[in-house]
Amino acid sequence: MFINKIKSEGLSHLSYLVGNDGHAFVVDPRRDCEIYVEEAVKAGCRITHIFETHRNEDLISGAPVLAKLTGARVLHGPNAAGNVAYADTTHEGDTFEFGNLRVEVLETPGHTDDSLSFAVFDTDFGDDAVGVFTGDAMFIGDVGRTDFYPDRAEEVAGLLYDSLRKILALGDQALLYPAHGAGSVCGDSMADREFSSLGYERKYNDKLRISSREQFIKAKIAEHHYQPPYFRLMEKLNLTGADPAPRITTPVPLSPDEFRSLPEKTVIVDTRTVSAFLGSHLPGSLAIPAPMIPAFAGWYIEPGQPVVLVAADPAQARVASQHLIRIGVDNLEGFLTTDMPEWSAGGLPFHSLPVMHVDDIRERFRNPPDDWQILDVRSIKEYRQESIEGSVHAYVGELPQTLDQLDRNRHYTVMCASGARATIAASVLERAGFSRVDVFLGSFGAWKATD
Amino acid sequence: MFINKIKSEGLSHLSYLVGNDGHAFVVDPRRDCEIYVEEAVKAGCRITHIFETHRNEDLISGAPVLAKLTGARVLHGPNAAGNVAYADTTHEGDTFEFGNLRVEVLETPGHTDDSLSFAVFDTDFGDDAVGVFTGDAMFIGDVGRTDFYPDRAEEVAGLLYDSLRKILALGDQALLYPAHGAGSVCGDSMADREFSSLGYERKYNDKLRISSREQFIKAKIAEHHYQPPYFRLMEKLNLTGADPAPRITTPVPLSPDEFRSLPEKTVIVDTRTVSAFLGSHLPGSLAIPAPMIPAFAGWYIEPGQPVVLVAADPAQARVASQHLIRIGVDNLEGFLTTDMPEWSAGGLPFHSLPVMHVDDIRERFRNPPDDWQILDVRSIKEYRQESIEGSVHAYVGELPQTLDQLDRNRHYTVMCASGARATIAASVLERAGFSRVDVFLGSFGAWKATD
Amino acid sequence: MFINKIKSEGLSHLSYLVGNDGHAFVVDPRRDCEIYVEEAVKAGCRITHIFETHRNEDLISGAPVLAKLTGARVLHGPNAAGNVAYADTTHEGDTFEFGNLRVEVLETPGHTDDSLSFAVFDTDFGDDAVGVFTGDAMFIGDVGRTDFYPDRAEEVAGLLYDSLRKILALGDQALLYPAHGAGSVCGDSMADREFSSLGYERKYNDKLRISSREQFIKAKIAEHHYQPPYFRLMEKLNLTGADPAPRITTPVPLSPDEFRSLPEKTVIVDTRTVSAFLGSHLPGSLAIPAPMIPAFAGWYIEPGQPVVLVAADPAQARVASQHLIRIGVDNLEGFLTTDMPEWSAGGLPFHSLPVMHVDDIRERFRNPPDDWQILDVRSIKEYRQESIEGSVHAYVGELPQTLDQLDRNRHYTVMCASGARATIAASVLERAGFSRVDVFLGSFGAWKATD
Amino acid sequence: MFINKIKSEGLSHLSYLVGNDGHAFVVDPRRDCEIYVEEAVKAGCRITHIFETHRNEDLISGAPVLAKLTGARVLHGPNAAGNVAYADTTHEGDTFEFGNLRVEVLETPGHTDDSLSFAVFDTDFGDDAVGVFTGDAMFIGDVGRTDFYPDRAEEVAGLLYDSLRKILALGDQALLYPAHGAGSVCGDSMADREFSSLGYERKYNDKLRISSREQFIKAKIAEHHYQPPYFRLMEKLNLTGADPAPRITTPVPLSPDEFRSLPEKTVIVDTRTVSAFLGSHLPGSLAIPAPMIPAFAGWYIEPGQPVVLVAADPAQARVASQHLIRIGVDNLEGFLTTDMPEWSAGGLPFHSLPVMHVDDIRERFRNPPDDWQILDVRSIKEYRQESIEGSVHAYVGELPQTLDQLDRNRHYTVMCASGARATIAASVLERAGFSRVDVFLGSFGAWKATD
């Protein structure tokens, strides 16, 4: 009896292959799902069931694809906002046996109406759960967000409260297997720890320690979460069942000539590091370093829009492409194979972004340049906690929608916590025609560290 | 904060890489220890500490080698039967910090005098342990064997009882990370489940449910465990620190000619499957299918004896070689590259072993051949539970020592639970000059299934 | 400018990825064709062209699939026995440029009417070819078989003669890149050497040294080649374009119970080694050791017939499955996960085959058993060269068709050159109800070696 | 019979594993030599011989290490500048048999006095060589440099001429296997093609087409080659036999804190891309993008000097480390794990380099800044062919020695062919205290392209 965690970096999405005695099931498979079959075979197991904790909004479910590959049956909770085309509905108390491993279904709504948890028992040993898959209901150090039904905010927060009590009732001994880890946008303050138990969470998870239902609802309602526009597409696809990932996820290398003859509407996503983008980049390209794609690409790329990448090497292009495919961006036309020296040696145009050190910023405060403005692109929560006096706020993800509130002719220094999101934001501004943009590398971190 | 389990198949040895915030430690590294460094680098961590739960008797510790590779400090418990040359001694209550991860030392003697457990805390969260590394003190579903100090049997069983209480006192919420899993010879009845918590074990581990110290001691003393002779070598090497594993673990392919000109004393270990050995094998070869090497090779190969392998392919030779290296058998001269058709097509000699089906055995009971005897080579515990009437017992591992009690001229049908250990035993008999040996494939399993 | 050979073991099929300056083409891709894209990306190249030297009869062409994956254009020769649906036709003298790499088309019929060769030039250097892809026209040490148009035997042998002269006219300096290497059934006496040049072949390839067209035709007509029945299917599929290989080529592990409830018509292919099959195997299973599948499976499995495997481990099942997929056997229902000890311990039935050493055979000649007959299953060519007196001949591949000429009640000892093909043949006999079959391990090789 | 090329990128060093009939030899192994053993085992071969074409000056020979790992015998030519401690001497006409593969030794001095070539014959076929390993005597499209004996310049050029004739006499049919490919500093104008034959080279290799010995000598003497200082160390180590590469080649990740407390003399090598270095880098770091390490690190790092890396990720650190180890830089203390945003967010210092586009340069020519000077760091050969008027020259490799001829207070724009070497040079200047340095990205390439 084994539980193998399969983690999708960036999304911090956790899925699980659980096997016993020649059979296996998968909890919350991702779209590129060959890995579950390969791991199962290595362990001598055949995948017969797929359990979904809820309809995911931040990634494409691999359940319909994996079901087709393996013949496995997909189980989904009731009350999805429509019929989950590829799944059977399972309910509170349903059980599934895999030899001496028994799975029991708990309805745990709140994060979504269809949220389920799956408790795991070893019938050779005893009547208590050994572990529980909690989806987005309970995380390590946090609980699920409840902002998806804005007009039912109190109700669903209350539902989550009840669901969490139901999960905790499984007992302190049960190991906790959530659907996301630290770094995910699906929670707010997850622990940067990859293992826990219900007993540990009961004692030390701040949200679980709120013993009053009312206090809990109040705390949940006070939270602020962002919803990137691509969430809508995910929800739709995860009802009907998305197509399989492309057979080959590595994009095609393109020459500078091919790159320059791309259709106008193509988005150029520069997946290189922040520093590489600052040093030189293709005019009009959007900076999203490969590891940041899962969190930020969905804010800027529209469904169906053709995309090309700039990457330091094929490995980076592959990682970027996998990230994009997991959130439904399939139409990757290729990636630029040459690094900036080769590109520029062809006489082709490039841009650099001026990079500001914290000392430069302090100097500017002493002698402010004309029309100068610090633009802070962190989340509103971070900004409200503490910010540099005189800075204005616009969240990096929402920037395309809020550009009109900024002045194309002003001199903006973009900042965030370190300079990473600031570089994304600077690229958004540059694409929109802002010509006096520089990046505060180190950003609020450096500001505080040198205070 | 992550805990990565690294499992050595066959030995069912579990070691752990634990990392947090750029630093990492390893618990109970195995001899071929590059993997810890590679995994640590992937996770952006530097290994600075190595913790040993006790002096291993069933495998070579990688601690001294890994320490040299990384500069990490090795920590070992007090009361090892001598000075652990490569380690510092750590004591009850010592703590080690890795950012917000704190390790606390518990002295938990019983399995050995130097046994330690290591509790892990997340100081960002709370004062209770999140997990505990228990070495060979506590397993999932079982506890450590206490037969290593025969003249102090009651005392050490009692020590273990106390140690287990000390571990359980960490609380139900703590995850359990033992040094062995199902299949190891270090326990008796481990669960075939790879995850548990103290809470779960407290409730469902039979040995932990014995609430009386006296009853526990009695139960432990009643156990019977085998100790392969190579244990002595491991204990010695793990005091002084063994040499690193060879840089290349795959043995050299040898031609039939090279194979035939090996020194007399060379042991030929046939690592192919049971069925392949039965079908045809080199005269004088010892059958130990690759996955069975960790459990059985140590019974038959003497320290320093040259060894060659027969393998179906280089991958099998490599697996066999890794198993052997982990238990200190380094002098592998190579492996035979050709399969039996090629070997035999050169006019070279080979043997087959007659294979008996359960129907053949029943038929024989009806019409017994001359001088016929069933030889059951299972453990004495298995044999005593249930056996075929008229069979005699000799444990497969101890066969070289008990051969003289058998009659070289009798007709033996060797059996075990399935035929696997029986095939090893048959090869031992064949090497010793027994000429009327056949193998009961299916063995006691088939006997019961067709009853 | 690079040429990477991609070899499919067993079929000894050679395909090539050729790249220059960011672009690449593939010659004769196999069905599981992701590898070309991956290799091309690693080399910074985009595949834009696929060249087929001819319509393959021994494997499924990956050209239509690879074309769909990459957008590349497929080029095929004229005079295919029908319209190659997925390809454009290219003719003598057509050229294709990839930077300074130029490809020139030569029509080289004979093996098939549509056979092409592709000469490669480096236009930065000179007017002579650096290399040539010859498909099945010219091999290292041999030339293509010409038995596919039985009623035009002399004509096509003559055509091949002319084609070979045309190829040789490219000059001694040109490197030779054929579509098959030693071990393929597409030639008769290929060198076991993986590299050559036209100059070397001109001097030392026996067939090329026949200077008279008449002598060449005579020699070709005197050859005897076997054509497994699946060739017909390959030819058909390679006109219309076969489906892609399954996304996951590793078959599903099945339990003994699942295995026993398979539909009657399912073929059980035992892919383990010869010796493992001899030792014990499932009743009714067909022995085809994994590496022999490409050469022999096509004789016994009918299109569309469901297949399950017996394999020593998942890796062997995967290799077997890849071999089967390349020749169009897709309907793999799974593989048996347990080895024979576990299988038999469940009380399930198994068979063994008696194994004869050359000494046993000689002893039998001295005291022949009743009704005893040696059955030699080598090729008719091998048999005619030399055989054991008194043996009868039936080619292993044709055995299903020639069974009726044998006597189910006789005692057959099956032999070949080593025992490998004999074991396949013995399994065919056993499945057909022959009950007195044994295998001469070592076979003719041992007979000669001990003469 | 197979020849597998093993290529070391960057050095463009080519070594070969050649196998036949269960035995294998290696030509010119590199220091990290486990790969040869692994490849040999996969092919069922045992390495018994190692042939060295000459004493390498640009990399550490793996021959002594591989010999120890395998027991193979090392063969080296006569007239090495001393005794090759780990090798036997072999002479013109010596032969070695590997089944039907015969190796024949040719003494081919010129590049070095001890240069050998090894002709390969297939004795099953004929008396002509199938291929030849030429070391640094003959390359594809070029011949070896002859500048290592400055006081015998004419003599050794003449020796090479004779050696090349001797090689060509093997016949047009022989395939060519040199020790370096395009990109190596061991030749001057190698073809960017990875395959050739003696016949092709005879016709199209410019140097081989010089039919007069005198003309050839004259042409060789007119060449200019650079010799990085580390060549001396390689030559010394390759006489005595260098130590094995470290068991683990990936360096240790270091935190910013650990990084900042390094000993003064430590060299920080920034292995990231050119653009990443330009965007932001650690003050005092030396820019050598990972793929450029083999060609440039040997100019700047002194034997024994401690080195740390800045790398985008562990994979890049590993590649860089492997490159360094191959040229004898073993004392790698670790690599920085954080990217520049994290580094700078800690308030730590960083620099950027101003990046100039070709348009900026042209504008500067129209309005020259004060004290402005273009510094061209290409090879003297490139500079003499064509350069920007007014630029001064200093070769990038020799810059540390020629710094005193430059003015620390001037404003330098550094250029090369694309900006890559210019970035290395700019980092050298910055480390030396030049404060007004910018980089012309695109460099001479852009200058010409936009002319």
Automatic annotation (TrEMBL), chains A, B, C, D:
<feature type="domain" description="Rhodanese">
    <location>
        <begin position="368"/>
        <end position="451"/>
    </location>
</feature>
<feature type="domain" description="Rhodanese">
    <location>
        <begin position="262"/>
        <end position="352"/>
    </location>
</feature>
<dbReference type="InterPro" id="IPR036873">
    <property type="entry name" value="Rhodanese-like_dom_sf"/>
</dbReference>
<dbReference type="Pfam" id="PF00753">
    <property type="entry name" value="Lactamase_B"/>
</dbReference>
<dbReference type="Pfam" id="PF00581">
    <property type="entry name" value="Rhodanese"/>
</dbReference>
<keyword id="KW-0479">Metal-binding</keyword>
<dbReference type="InterPro" id="IPR001279">
    <property type="entry name" value="Metallo-B-lactamas"/>
</dbReference>
<keyword id="KW-0378">Hydrolase</keyword>
<dbReference type="GO" id="GO:0016787">
    <property type="term" value="F:hydrolase activity"/>
</dbReference>
<dbReference type="InterPro" id="IPR036866">
    <property type="entry name" value="RibonucZ/Hydroxyglut_hydro"/>
</dbReference>
<protein>
    <submittedName>
        <fullName>MBL fold hydrolase</fullName>
    </submittedName>
</protein>
<dbReference type="InterPro" id="IPR044528">
    <property type="entry name" value="POD-like_MBL-fold"/>
</dbReference>
<dbReference type="InterPro" id="IPR001763">
    <property type="entry name" value="Rhodanese-like_dom"/>
</dbReference>
<dbReference type="InterPro" id="IPR051682">
    <property type="entry name" value="Mito_Persulfide_Diox"/>
</dbReference>
